[in-house]
Amino acid sequence: xxxxxxxxxxxxxxxxxxxxxxxxxxxxxxxxxxxxxxxxxxxxxxxxxxxxxxxxxxxxxxxxxxxxxxxxxxxxxxxxxxxxxxxxxxxxxxxxxxxxxxxxxxxxxxxxxxxxxxxxxxxxxxxxxxxxxxxxxxxxxxxxxxxxxxxxxxxxxxxxxxxxxxxxxxxxxxxxxxxxxxxxxxxxxxxxxxxxxxxxxxxxxxxxxxxxxxxxxxxxxxxxxxxxxxxxxxxxxxxxxxxxxxxxxxxxxxxxxxxxxxxxxxxxxxxxxxxxxxxxxxxxxxxxxxxxxxxxx
Length: 297
Ligand SMILES: [Zn+2]
Ligand SMILES: [Zn+2]
Fold this sequence. Notes:
Blueprint: H1 8-31, H2 35-61, E1 66-67, H3 69-81, H4 87-99, H5 114-118, H6 136-139, H7 142-149, H8 151-169, H9 173-196, H10 217-222, H11 229-234, H12 250-259, E2 264-265, H13 272-288, H14 290-296
Antiparallel strand pairs: 1-2
Helix pairs in contact: 1-9, 2-3, 2-4, 2-9, 3-8, 8-9, 13-14
This protein binds zinc ion (2 copies).
One zinc ion binds next to α11.
């Protein structure tokens, strides 16, 4: 794969955000501690995380359910605060990831190593124009295109200006900006990045041994359920990632709960038969190739 030029905007922004997140801990410990700012940080973390998992991923990238316009706007605004690109471009990258998993075309190809899949891929420019043919459905959604056009404005307003403004209500605007803006952002980034790195390296493969995607409770725990990644790669349009009721998948519970009040609908589920057939197939393949199965747990 030809070496790509550094993306200095991304490198400097990511480095600065990490420094500010570390400073926010110093700020809390030594300068000013406000429970209101900490609570705001948790609320912003929950809102922007669910907007990436339930919105960018399970709604826009894989239309696995339908959502009311109010919910879509919520996802688009708080998803921008997650500073992971617009929903349109994120979805195009993600659809390529599914189509070309473990190849050079996969934007976060795990074959290039843990750190590449986790964060280094963002440090390089991708000279290719986003392939809109992979997201015709999204280009027809005027709100997705609106968010794509104003992504940077939204990211700054929802990710920084609003926390700063809210913090000024309780006399801690800088603390609110640091905690709900930067500390929240770093925690959220590394959680999302873990799906591309850890869950393509560590965990079990009960549904498919074709690719590197694995099921990992720990990644599910920090990503609102996205860690059941082996299941997800096999059955991408299922709105669930953890299929058992006890699987830790808050995104699934959120989408399901909202269906009860009409904010989501048409939740797609894979039939039990298809799931069992996939499991059986994996068992047969392992029995045929015991040496291979030792590496695939
Ligand atoms: Zn996916
Ligand atoms: Zn994946």
